[in-house]
Automatic annotation (TrEMBL):
Domain of life: Eukaryota
Residues covered by the TANGO6 HEAT repeat domain: 16-128
Pfam families (UniProt xref): ARM_TANGO6
PANTHER family: TRANSPORT AND GOLGI ORGANIZATION PROTEIN 6 FAMILY MEMBER, TRANSPORT AND GOLGI ORGANIZATION PROTEIN 6 HOMOLOG
Organism: Nothoprocta pentlandii
Biological process per Gene Ontology, one example term: protein secretion
Protein name: TNG6 protein
C-alpha cells in the first residue's frame, strides 16, 4: 500500500541522515548478499548494490535542500571506501562508486564539492608540493 511505502521511505531517509546511517542501512540491505557462488548470485548482488546506490543518490523529501543532504551523506559515502573486511568492502565500495557516479551525473557541482574534492585532496596536496 502507498501509506506503507511512504512510511518506509520516511524511516529509511531518517536513518540515512543520522551519523553512520548509510553504513547501517547498507548492512541491513546487503547482509547475506554475496554469500553464495555463481554468476546468478553475482548478478543479484550487482543489482542490489545498484538499487541501494540509486536510493542513496536521491535526496529525500525530508531534506530542506540537496546541498544539506549531500553535506550529511557524502562523508558517509566516502567512508565506505575505507572498509577493511574484504567481503564487506567489495559490496560497500561497489555501492559507493555507483553512488558517486550517480550523484556526479545528477548534481555535478555538489558532487565535486562534497565527493570529488575531498577524495582528490591528498593527490592535490602531493602535486602542489
Amino acid at each position: 500500500p502507498a501509506w506503507l511505502r511512504r512510511l518506509c521511505g520516511q524511516l529509511l531517509s531518517e536513518r540515512l541522515l543520522r551519523p553512520r546511517g548509510v553504513h547501517a542501512v547498507l548492512r541491513g540491505v546487503l547482509e547475506g548478499a554475496g554469500g553464495s557462488d555463481g554468476a546468478e548470485a553475482a548478478a543479484v548482488d550487482w543489482r542490489k548494490c545498484d538499487v541501494v546506490a540509486k536510493i542513496l543518490a536521491a535526496c529525500p523529501q525530508q531534506c530542506l535542500s540537496v546541498e544539506d543532504y549531500y553535506t550529511l551523506v557524502c562523508p558517509q559515502i566516502l567512508d565506505l571506501l575505507h572498509i577493511q573486511d574484504k567481503q564487506t568492502a567489495r559490496q560497500f565500495q561497489r555501492v559507493a562508486t555507483t553512488t558517486i557516479l550517480t550523484m556526479a551525473k545528477g548534481h555535478p557541482q555538489l558532487a565535486e564539492k562534497h565527493l570529488l574534492q575531498p577524495m582528490l585532496a591528498p593527490l592535490l596536496r602531493c602535486s602542489d608540493a
